Amino acid sequence: CSAAGIIRTINTNGSSLYLGGGVGQLYWLTSGTNTVTYCFADMDTTVDWGNFCRAGGFIGQTSRSTVLNNCYAKGSIKDLDSDPISTIRFSYYGGFIGVANGNISNCFCAIDSFTSGAANVRAFGGTLSGTETACFWDSTACGFTTANTDAAAKTTVQMQMVSTFTDAGWDFAGEAANGTTDVWRMSADGVGYPQLSWEFGRRGDFACPDGVGVDDLEAMQMAWLTVEGQAGYSIACDADSNGRIDIADFKVLARYWKDGI
User: Which of 16, 96, 126, 156 would you label with 72, given CA atoms 20 to 30 Å apart?
Assistant: First the structure.
């Protein structure tokens, strides 16, 4: 799933606010685990709130037994609340997540113009009950230096280098050491942040470099008729995101054949 656009909020009744670029509050299950994976948000968010605001670039708050992996947040977060910090109580802001209960892995945030008057503000997660593994935030873009998390601060230059992520074990198209599902993709250093392979797959671009051609046909052939979780399956080739590489994905490839070359 993905979300992109603009969010504006204003405190009209003083009630609690859960605000995220992708999800406001992911409530807990009575049993089992909430899982969010292969998702992103690119949202410009403005908050004018007071007490009990949980806001994040991707998710405002998760509850118990939650797993987040292979997700990212871009955009901006601006808090217009002019009240003194002492009155902005029980509020938590994070570039990726406001309040996290659970485990987060292989996620990043690149939040520009991150400002807030609240005391509990962190560059990646406002507060965390759980673990963060192989997560990153852009220290150049953020403009906010307090992390207080296990997420690693990287400059924009570092955040736009494949090695920053593959060295941490992220599964990228074009490498096999970290897996062959090809969850992430960055065709060239210095061009932009990592993106999820399915973002390209929906345009028939199954393999690096960019453009649709024989290399994409070869990538699809290698994953042909595999299903998610099976050896050889590639999310980069799953154009319709149904967990199977089949004729529907070939139709997408054919639609964009030779595009960009």
Answer: 16
Angle at 95 between CA 113 and CA 203, to 5 degrees: 90
C-alpha angle with apex 16: 13 to 18, nearest 5 degrees? 125
Question: What's the distance, CA 186 to chain centroid?
Answer: 14
The answer to whether 253 touches 201, Cβ cutoff 8 Å, is no
SS3 38: strand
Amino acid (1-letter code) at residue 67: V
Largest CA distance in the chain: 61
Q: Where are the beta strands (DSSP E) in 31-156?
A: 34-47, 53-56, 59-62, 66-79, 92-94, 97-105, 108-115, 120-122, 125-133, 136-138, 152-154
> What does each C-alpha distance from 34 to 19, 53, 65, 250 come to in angstroms?
18, 22, 6, 32
- Token pair belonging to 74: 């871009």
Tell which phi-psi region holds residue 28, choosing left (phi > 0), alpha (psi between -120 and 50) or beta.
Answer: beta
Q: In what order do the strands lie in the sheet with 17-20?
A: 17-20, 53-56, 92-94, 120-122
- Partners of 36 in the beta sheet? 68
Q: Which residues contact 249 (CB under 8 A, 6 or more apart)?
A: 201, 220, 237, 238, 239, 240
pLDDT in tens, 16-31: 889 999 999 988 666 7
Could you tell me which residue, 101 or 89, shows the higher pLDDT?
Answer: 101
- 241 near 198, Cβ under 8 Å? yes
The answer to whether the pTM exceeds 0.85 is yes
Cα R_g (the chain), whole angstroms: 19
